[in-house]
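To close the section, here is one more complete example, presented without commentary so you can practise reading it yourself. The ligand is zinc ion.
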Amino acid sequence: MGEAAAAIVSQQYKPRNPQQSQYYLCVEDHFESFELGYDERFSARYGFLRPYVKDVMLRYLDCGDLHGGFARIKCPDCGHERLLAFSCKRRHFCPSCHQKRVVEFGEWLCMEVVKKVPHRHVVFSIPKILRRYFLYDRSLLSDLSRCAWETLKSFHQCASGKENATPGAVIAIQSFGDFLGFNPHCHVLVSDGCFYETGSFKTAPKLDQKGMMKLFRQKVLKLLLAKGKITPEIISMLDTWKHTGFTVFCGDRIYPHDDTAMENLACYIIRASFSQERMTYLRDEAKVVYKAKKGREMKTFDASEWLAAMCSHIPNRGEQMVRYYGYYSNVCRGNRQKEKTDDTIPCIIEADATSPAKRKAWARLIQKIYEVDPLTCPQCKGTMKVISVIDQPEVVKHILQHLGLWEMQKRPPPKIKYPPSAYYADEQIPSYDNVDPDYPFEAYL
Ligand SMILES: [Zn+2]
Ligand SMILES: [Zn+2]
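Output:
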């Protein structure tokens, strides 16, 4: 091995070792039997196995693995070089890629979308008996989001006394409840009051949670009836319930200068559907023990059953899980930007010397998560640059063999066939092509 090659090996960027996590092992050990047994064991409960779900799982297994392709990065000052593996960039299943997205989203939302006015966290949820309709027909999730928005808008406009006043809201759909059950609900970050056409903002009096719950309930039932999911008889039956099963939670006011609370909330509303810390994989028994978020309760799953539950929370390719309404809608934001009036109400984060594009650069986000900056040269602290992206399997193999890294492959080749050449063809670093649109990445590329 040459000196340069040896230097690359010694300095490989390895911030984590996904292959050794319990979660990774569980997916790797049980993917095959999960897939083979799915129709018989799980389709009645979760619907058919979506092809995209399989793609997400396989990509997770190869995420961060040099064998799947990599970028060569080099320091222009001292010539130091290393390799950076591709990541899968998929939501909810790959813990590290999802977390990257969460951090990015939090920054983007606070800098580009929400204004420096008071906000609240509001959560809308629905009774158990209605949840499965949303599992079998995911298009209903966007309607659920709209029901929540319309409810909030009515209450805010009523309180403001003006019809052309509007609140701004960001609504994220979460589909998971305790122990990964399917529980679709809306997390809303809403301005605590209305924006007026003049550009001013008036705070709202305390929201009437009970009234909102009633209106939300009415909207959801009307929706399900119109879509032919429920009958008038079911509605009559629900009317007799003492507790409706619909809930509206309304958090305390978050004040305009509490940037930390806003960013934490932004991250919270798109958080991953599961937590690695709460799972224990019992490899010998092929079981997963999952702890409750709070308290001591635990649930034991058969490993394949755990994967089936996890998979019900993977959104489809391109499925939008976050929506923007009223003053924060894409149309309103676009108009303000065109008219250059988007800054008339001060943004949450004040502009500073660095450009937004640079601040939100991919490398910086990695740094925020792993506390390592892959583009900082370890020798001279210069900024390393991507010099090439290697994704052709023969070339990947050739280089890794040359570096003595090919044999390090821990995982046997995937047992399920997929076209290797097309696999990473659309992956570029640090491009955000082909990602799922929770928010417009292109806005700052
Ligand atoms: Zn250097
Ligand atoms: Zn990944």
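Once you have examined the tokens, check your reading against these statements. The chain has two domains: 3-94+373-439, 115-274+313-347. The first helix runs from residue 3 to 10.
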